[in-house]
């Protein structure tokens, strides 16, 4: 036994056993391998995500005008969680329509992808689209302005409309360009507007029936300015008696001598430098004042006036007549007194003369 233990073969056998034990210990899963196992499990978990992606065209867009396709489509991807998340964040792939070999007309085309990782599965919605390929044409059009003039406040007028820019570039299928009857803007003016309209307005291309034509406009909006003003001038007023009255001594007076009238250019041109203001005196029996509404008096000759009303004093002359009668009576009384005094004086003179004659005879 001692020989066996001291033998080189024994030590070699022991070394072999230890080596085998260490090998199996290291190879057996344990605490140290848990983390690697978890990472392996995580990488195999699947995930799904739906993305909205721009749809690209592979076509000669300088020569052809293409319509009918959506700007964006949805794609659902599925695969390893980490890969799905990375793809969702970067979107480093494309969805496209290959139209290079298609002729003019309508075509049903499948949407294709490029750049997606091969470990991902995907589905695109919609899978097919119908496109219309037409010969491309570009043309310039002047911009017309169409608005409701009845929106202006009474008496106000619109001046020359300014449009900037006054022309737009229209691009589309040649067949659509031919349909265009006019390119217009339709500004919507607030009801009763009294000040200049100044806004950006959407441009529209319309056919002869007033329907929108499917084309691209550049620019899509233009700046529209519509000056809105009202004309005015100052005129004097002439108070005119209106209606029958028994008093022939009536007089009309007002502190207001001049007014300003407002209206359209044609209304202002038709107004003279002075206007007659009729005052109804048919119901006047004594001194009084009346408020005259100038808008009612001038009617549709003007839009409005400043001031809108005036106060008119109507004098019947009754106070001055009483004064004159009193003065007349006073004068008559004085005349009577003077006549009486003259008679008395005459009588006294005659008496004195008689007395002198009698004395002379004696």
UniProtKB/TrEMBL annotation:
Highest taxon above the source species: Bacteria
Gene3D superfamilies the record matches: 2.170.120.30, YbbR-like domain
Coiled-coil spans in chain: none
Residue segments, region Disordered: 314-362
PANTHER family, A to Z: CDAA REGULATORY PROTEIN CDAR
Listed name of the protein: YbbR-like domain-containing protein
UniProt source species: Companilactobacillus zhachilii
């Amino acid at each position: 036994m001692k020989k066996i233990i001291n033998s080189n073969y024994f030590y070699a056998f022991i070394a072999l056993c230890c080596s085998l034990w260490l090998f199996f210990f290291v190879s057996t899963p344990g605490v140290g391998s848990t983390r690697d196992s978890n990472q392996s499990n995580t990488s195999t978990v699947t995930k799904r995500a739906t993305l909205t992606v721009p749809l690209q065209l592979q076509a000669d867009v300088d020569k052809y005008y293409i319509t009918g396709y959506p700007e964006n489509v949805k794609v659902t991807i599925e695969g390893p969680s980490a890969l799905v998340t990375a793809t969702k964040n970067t979107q480093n792939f494309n969805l496209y329509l290959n139209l290079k070999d298609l002729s003019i007309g309508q075509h049903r085309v499948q949407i294709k992808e490029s750049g997606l990782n091969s470990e991902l599965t995907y589905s695109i919605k919609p899978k097919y689209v119908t496109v219309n390929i037409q010969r491309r044409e570009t043309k310039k059009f002047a911009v017309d302005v169409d608005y409701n003039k009845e929106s202006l406040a009474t008496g106000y007028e619109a001046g020359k409309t300014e449009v900037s820019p006054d022309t737009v570039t229209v691009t589309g299928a040649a067949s659509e360009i031919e349909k265009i009857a006019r390119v217009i803007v339709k500004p919507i003016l607030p009801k009763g507007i009294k000040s200049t309209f100044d806004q950006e307005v959407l441009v529209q291309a319309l056919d002869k029936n007033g329907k929108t034509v499917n084309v691209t406009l550049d620019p899509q909006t233009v700046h529209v300015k519509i000056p809105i003003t009202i004309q005015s001038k100052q005129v004097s007023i002439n108070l005119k008696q209106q209606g029958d009255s028994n008093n022939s001594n009536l007089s009309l007076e007002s502190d207001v001598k001049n007014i300003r009238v407002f209206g359209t250019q044609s209304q202002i041109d038709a107004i003279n430098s002075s206007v007659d203001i009729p005052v109804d005196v048919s119901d006047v029996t004594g001194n009084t004042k009346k408020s005259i509404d100038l808008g009612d008096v001038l009617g549709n000759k003007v839009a409005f006036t400043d001031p809108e009303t005036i106060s008119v004093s109507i004098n019947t002359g009754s106070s001055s007549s009483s004064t004159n009668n009193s003065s007349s009576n006073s004068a008559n009384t004085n005349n009577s007194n003077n006549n009486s005094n003259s008679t008395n004086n005459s009588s006294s003179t005659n008496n004195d003369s008689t007395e002198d004659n009698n004395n002379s005879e004696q």
